[in-house]
Protein backbone atom coordinates (compact mmCIF):
# COMPACT_ATOMS: atom_id res chain seq x y z
CA UNK A 1 0.00 0.00 0.00
CA UNK A 2 1.61 3.20 -1.09
CA UNK A 3 0.70 6.72 -0.36
CA UNK A 4 1.40 10.04 -1.70
CA UNK A 5 1.46 11.87 -4.14
CA UNK A 6 2.27 13.79 -7.03
CA UNK A 7 1.85 17.08 -7.69
CA UNK A 8 3.71 19.03 -10.28
CA UNK A 9 1.63 21.33 -12.34
CA UNK A 10 -0.82 22.92 -9.97
CA UNK A 11 -3.70 22.44 -12.39
CA UNK A 12 -3.18 18.74 -12.39
CA UNK A 13 -2.63 18.92 -8.71
CA UNK A 14 -2.74 15.33 -7.63
CA UNK A 15 -1.87 13.35 -10.64
CA UNK A 16 -3.54 9.97 -10.49
CA UNK A 17 -2.18 7.19 -8.45
CA UNK A 18 -2.80 8.18 -4.95
CA UNK A 19 -3.87 4.63 -4.30
CA UNK A 20 -3.92 4.89 -0.58
CA UNK A 21 -7.21 6.46 0.61
CA UNK A 22 -5.56 7.74 3.81
CA UNK A 23 -2.92 9.56 1.78
CA UNK A 24 -5.58 10.96 -0.50
CA UNK A 25 -7.48 12.28 2.49
CA UNK A 26 -4.31 13.83 3.91
CA UNK A 27 -3.63 15.70 0.72
CA UNK A 28 -7.22 16.88 0.41
CA UNK A 29 -7.19 18.16 3.98
CA UNK A 30 -3.92 19.89 3.29
CA UNK A 31 -5.42 21.64 0.29
CA UNK A 32 -8.53 22.70 2.19
CA UNK A 33 -6.46 24.14 5.01
CA UNK A 34 -4.27 26.08 2.62
CA UNK A 35 -6.64 27.52 0.07
CA UNK A 36 -5.22 31.06 0.20
CA UNK A 37 -1.62 30.03 0.09
CA UNK A 38 -2.41 27.70 -2.80
CA UNK A 39 -3.96 30.58 -4.72
CA UNK A 40 -0.92 32.76 -4.12
CA UNK A 41 1.35 29.97 -5.26
CA UNK A 42 -0.71 29.47 -8.39
CA UNK A 43 -0.64 33.16 -9.24
CA UNK A 44 3.12 33.33 -8.76
CA UNK A 45 3.67 30.20 -10.82
CA UNK A 46 1.58 31.71 -13.59
CA UNK A 47 3.66 34.93 -13.50
CA UNK A 48 6.83 32.90 -13.67
CA UNK A 49 5.50 30.90 -16.59
CA UNK A 50 4.43 34.09 -18.42
CA UNK A 51 7.95 35.42 -18.06
CA UNK A 52 9.28 32.16 -19.46
CA UNK A 53 11.49 31.69 -16.44
CA UNK A 54 12.61 28.11 -16.14
CA UNK A 55 14.38 27.77 -12.85
CA UNK A 56 14.73 29.33 -9.43
CA UNK A 57 18.21 30.50 -10.37
CA UNK A 58 16.75 32.45 -13.31
CA UNK A 59 14.01 33.79 -11.09
CA UNK A 60 16.62 35.18 -8.69
CA UNK A 61 18.36 36.80 -11.61
CA UNK A 62 15.45 38.24 -13.60
CA UNK A 63 12.68 38.68 -11.08
CA UNK A 64 14.06 39.37 -7.62
CA UNK A 65 10.60 40.14 -6.24
CA UNK A 66 9.24 36.89 -7.62
CA UNK A 67 12.08 34.98 -5.99
CA UNK A 68 11.39 36.68 -2.67
CA UNK A 69 7.69 35.92 -2.97
CA UNK A 70 8.42 32.26 -3.68
CA UNK A 71 10.72 31.99 -0.67
CA UNK A 72 8.09 33.64 1.51
CA UNK A 73 5.36 31.27 0.34
CA UNK A 74 7.65 28.27 0.69
CA UNK A 75 8.54 29.32 4.22
CA UNK A 76 4.86 29.57 5.15
CA UNK A 77 4.12 26.14 3.70
CA UNK A 78 3.70 23.45 6.31
CA UNK A 79 5.52 20.20 5.64
CA UNK A 80 3.38 17.28 4.55
CA UNK A 81 2.92 15.02 7.56
CA UNK A 82 4.28 11.67 6.48
CA UNK A 83 4.70 8.65 8.72
CA UNK A 84 8.15 7.23 9.43
CA UNK A 85 11.29 7.97 7.46
CA UNK A 86 10.77 9.29 3.97
CA UNK A 87 13.68 9.70 1.61
CA UNK A 88 13.45 11.39 -1.79
CA UNK A 89 15.93 10.78 -4.62
CA UNK A 90 16.47 13.69 -7.00
CA UNK A 91 18.85 14.01 -9.91
CA UNK A 92 18.98 14.38 -13.67
CA UNK A 93 17.78 11.58 -15.92
CA UNK A 94 20.04 8.52 -15.90
CA UNK A 95 22.06 9.47 -12.84
CA UNK A 96 20.98 6.14 -11.34
CA UNK A 97 18.18 6.98 -8.90
CA UNK A 98 16.09 3.91 -9.70
CA UNK A 99 19.14 1.64 -9.71
CA UNK A 100 20.05 2.94 -6.27
CA UNK A 101 16.56 2.33 -4.90
CA UNK A 102 16.60 -1.26 -6.16
CA UNK A 103 19.94 -1.85 -4.49
CA UNK A 104 18.84 -0.26 -1.23
CA UNK A 105 15.76 -2.46 -1.13
CA UNK A 106 17.56 -5.47 -2.54
CA UNK A 107 14.65 -5.98 -4.96
CA UNK A 108 14.15 -5.00 -8.57
CA UNK A 109 11.14 -2.77 -8.03
CA UNK A 110 11.96 0.34 -10.03
CA UNK A 111 12.44 0.27 -13.78
CA UNK A 112 15.92 1.31 -14.89
CA UNK A 113 17.57 2.01 -18.22
CA UNK A 114 18.90 4.60 -20.63
CA UNK A 115 16.86 7.74 -21.28
CA UNK A 116 13.94 9.06 -19.27
CA UNK A 117 12.67 5.98 -17.48
CA UNK A 118 10.82 7.16 -14.38
CA UNK A 119 7.99 9.51 -15.26
CA UNK A 120 6.21 10.06 -11.97
CA UNK A 121 7.00 10.05 -8.29
CA UNK A 122 6.86 6.48 -7.12
CA UNK A 123 7.07 5.38 -3.49
CA UNK A 124 8.73 2.10 -2.47
CA UNK A 125 8.64 0.68 1.03
CA UNK A 126 11.69 -0.63 2.82
CA UNK A 127 12.04 -1.79 6.41
CA UNK A 128 11.08 1.25 8.43
CA UNK A 129 11.44 3.70 5.60
CA UNK A 130 9.89 4.73 2.33
CA UNK A 131 11.92 5.69 -0.71
CA UNK A 132 10.57 8.06 -3.36
CA UNK A 133 11.84 7.64 -6.89
CA UNK A 134 11.53 11.02 -8.57
CA UNK A 135 11.67 11.63 -12.31
CA UNK A 136 14.79 13.19 -13.74
CA UNK A 137 13.28 16.52 -14.64
CA UNK A 138 12.90 18.06 -11.23
CA UNK A 139 14.44 21.51 -11.48
CA UNK A 140 11.67 22.83 -13.58
CA UNK A 141 9.40 25.72 -12.59
CA UNK A 142 6.47 23.36 -13.07
CA UNK A 143 7.48 22.06 -9.66
CA UNK A 144 7.00 25.45 -8.04
CA UNK A 145 3.79 24.28 -6.49
CA UNK A 146 2.85 24.36 -2.89
CA UNK A 147 2.27 20.62 -2.69
CA UNK A 148 5.70 19.96 -4.05
CA UNK A 149 7.31 22.33 -1.56
CA UNK A 150 5.28 20.66 1.20
CA UNK A 151 6.56 17.30 0.00
CA UNK A 152 10.18 18.50 -0.01
CA UNK A 153 9.76 19.88 3.47
CA UNK A 154 8.09 16.71 4.76
CA UNK A 155 10.88 14.40 3.64
CA UNK A 156 13.32 13.12 6.26
CA UNK A 157 16.15 13.33 3.73
CA UNK A 158 16.59 14.75 0.26
CA UNK A 159 19.24 12.82 -1.64
CA UNK A 160 20.55 14.47 -4.78
CA UNK A 161 22.36 12.25 -7.27
CA UNK A 162 24.93 13.47 -9.75
CA UNK A 163 27.40 11.80 -12.01
CA UNK A 164 29.92 14.39 -13.17
CA UNK A 165 29.52 17.78 -11.55
CA UNK A 166 27.62 19.76 -8.91
CA UNK A 167 26.62 22.03 -11.78
CA UNK A 168 24.08 19.41 -12.92
CA UNK A 169 21.87 20.37 -10.02
CA UNK A 170 22.68 23.97 -9.05
CA UNK A 171 19.14 25.07 -9.87
CA UNK A 172 17.73 22.65 -7.32
CA UNK A 173 20.42 23.49 -4.73
CA UNK A 174 19.65 27.23 -5.03
CA UNK A 175 16.01 26.65 -4.28
CA UNK A 176 16.66 24.25 -1.40
CA UNK A 177 19.17 26.70 0.08
CA UNK A 178 16.72 29.57 -0.27
CA UNK A 179 14.09 27.72 1.73
CA UNK A 180 16.63 26.38 4.23
CA UNK A 181 16.31 22.70 3.45
CA UNK A 182 19.30 20.41 3.90
CA UNK A 183 20.29 17.76 1.36
CA UNK A 184 22.74 14.91 0.88
CA UNK A 185 24.78 14.49 -2.24
CA UNK A 186 25.47 11.17 -3.90
CA UNK A 187 28.06 11.17 -6.62
CA UNK A 188 27.02 7.99 -8.39
CA UNK A 189 28.75 6.02 -11.14
CA UNK A 190 32.06 6.58 -9.39
CA UNK A 191 33.18 3.32 -11.02
CA UNK A 192 33.27 5.14 -14.36
CA UNK A 193 35.99 7.49 -13.12
CA UNK A 194 39.44 6.07 -13.81
CA UNK A 195 41.12 4.85 -10.70
CA UNK A 196 44.02 7.30 -10.84
CA UNK A 197 41.62 10.21 -11.32
CA UNK A 198 39.31 9.51 -8.41
CA UNK A 199 41.07 11.63 -5.79
CA UNK A 200 41.18 14.62 -8.13
CA UNK A 201 37.56 14.14 -9.00
CA UNK A 202 36.58 14.14 -5.33
CA UNK A 203 38.54 17.32 -4.80
CA UNK A 204 36.81 18.91 -7.80
CA UNK A 205 33.34 18.15 -6.39
CA UNK A 206 34.28 19.55 -2.98
CA UNK A 207 35.72 22.64 -4.64
CA UNK A 208 32.49 23.17 -6.57
CA UNK A 209 30.48 23.06 -3.35
CA UNK A 210 32.62 25.88 -1.98
CA UNK A 211 32.60 27.84 -5.24
CA UNK A 212 28.82 27.64 -5.55
CA UNK A 213 28.48 28.75 -1.94
CA UNK A 214 26.06 25.94 -1.15
CA UNK A 215 24.67 26.06 2.38
CA UNK A 216 22.61 22.93 2.81
CA UNK A 217 25.06 20.09 2.05
CA UNK A 218 24.94 17.50 4.84
CA UNK A 219 27.04 14.72 3.32
CA UNK A 220 28.79 13.86 0.08
CA UNK A 221 29.16 10.20 -0.82
CA UNK A 222 30.99 8.68 -3.80
CA UNK A 223 29.37 5.42 -4.78
CA UNK A 224 28.43 3.02 -7.52
CA UNK A 225 24.84 1.89 -7.25
CA UNK A 226 25.51 -0.71 -9.88
CA UNK A 227 28.15 -2.27 -7.69
CA UNK A 228 27.55 -1.01 -4.15
CA UNK A 229 30.38 -2.97 -2.54
CA UNK A 230 33.02 -1.31 -4.67
CA UNK A 231 33.19 1.85 -2.55
CA UNK A 232 32.95 2.09 1.25
CA UNK A 233 30.85 5.29 1.15
CA UNK A 234 27.90 3.08 0.24
CA UNK A 235 27.68 1.54 3.71
CA UNK A 236 28.17 4.91 5.40
CA UNK A 237 25.34 6.25 3.29
CA UNK A 238 23.02 3.33 4.05
CA UNK A 239 23.68 3.67 7.79
CA UNK A 240 22.96 7.36 7.67
CA UNK A 241 19.80 7.12 5.61
CA UNK A 242 18.22 4.21 7.42
CA UNK A 243 19.15 4.89 11.03
CA UNK A 244 16.99 6.58 13.72
N1 LIG B 1 28.46 2.33 -14.57
C1 LIG B 1 27.40 2.59 -13.82
N2 LIG B 1 26.17 2.63 -14.37
C2 LIG B 1 25.12 2.90 -13.58
C3 LIG B 1 25.27 3.14 -12.18
N3 LIG B 1 24.05 3.39 -11.67
C4 LIG B 1 23.17 3.30 -12.69
N4 LIG B 1 23.80 3.00 -13.84
C5 LIG B 1 23.18 2.83 -15.17
O1 LIG B 1 22.67 4.10 -15.61
C6 LIG B 1 21.46 3.93 -16.35
C7 LIG B 1 20.35 4.80 -15.77
O2 LIG B 1 20.01 4.34 -14.49
P1 LIG B 1 18.58 4.62 -13.84
O3 LIG B 1 18.65 4.07 -12.45
O4 LIG B 1 17.49 4.13 -14.71
O5 LIG B 1 18.58 6.21 -13.80
P2 LIG B 1 17.47 7.21 -13.22
O6 LIG B 1 18.21 8.26 -12.48
O7 LIG B 1 16.45 6.46 -12.45
O8 LIG B 1 16.85 7.84 -14.55
P3 LIG B 1 15.36 8.48 -14.81
O9 LIG B 1 14.36 7.51 -14.26
O10 LIG B 1 15.26 8.62 -16.28
O11 LIG B 1 15.33 9.81 -14.12
C8 LIG B 1 21.14 2.44 -16.30
O12 LIG B 1 21.56 1.87 -17.51
C9 LIG B 1 21.97 1.92 -15.13
O13 LIG B 1 22.33 0.58 -15.28
C10 LIG B 1 26.59 3.07 -11.62
O14 LIG B 1 26.83 3.28 -10.44
N5 LIG B 1 27.60 2.81 -12.50
MG1 LIG C 1 14.46 6.25 -12.77
From TrEMBL:
Pfam families: MMR_HSR1 (PF01926). InterPro entries: GTP-bd, P-loop_NTPase. GO terms for molecular function: GTP binding. Keywords: Coiled coil. Residues 27-54 form a coiled coil. This is G domain-containing protein. Residues 87-189 form the G domain. It comes from Rotaria magnacalcarata.
